[in-house]
């Protein structure tokens, strides 16, 4: 709608982060971490709950959501190769074959959008934002895997990560002079609460 994508991301994940922090507190999950652990949780939050969604939301201003979904399906390939590079995980043939089948199935589902796509005009901008958002999401997945590997609980890292990602998007939006936007409507608030 008319709300700037950066503010929509900020609202969504700040609200989700606060909800998750409440759940983590009620569930008595560990919520005390070292500065270094918080730094990696922040990185996870920026990648998974900030910049990746911001890029994806921008891409949908230029492309259909089906085409963006298809591009986002490349996440599995980015994860395979980034996992190999950063976590030294082996590349397994069956995972690559499964990823190819998955991507093919997604392409069939969105065949109408795909068959009408051209790189003309602003569509290339949308494609680059979608690919950028997918790559950033992969970095977030790798950071999340690294955090789990050293014993940071998933619920706690996601709770803090969402909060950090949402608040950072809010800070950047204000810092860059974006006009604060929010729509007081059943549709906008309902979808915001649902997504959070």
Key attributes of the depicted protein:
76% helix, 0% strand, 196 residues, mainly alpha
Can you walk me through this structure?
Helices cover 76% and strands 0% of the residues. It contains 9 helices and no strands. It has helices spanning 5-26, 35-59, 65-72, 75-87, 93-109, 111-115, 123-149, 154-175, 186-195. Helix 1 crosses helix 2 (35-59) and helix 4 crosses helix 7 (123-149). It is globular, with a radius of gyration of 18 Å. The two termini are 17 Å apart. The mean pLDDT is 92.
Principal-axes geometry comes out as: globular
How many strands? 0
Radius of gyration from CA coordinates:
18 Å
What is the helix content?
A: over 70%
Uncertain residue ranges: none
Structure annotation, total helices: 9
Order of helices and strands: HHHHHHHHH
Structure classification: mainly alpha
Strand residue percentage: under 5%
User: What is the CA-CA span between the terminal residues?
Assistant: 17 Å
Summarize model confidence as the mean pLDDT. 92
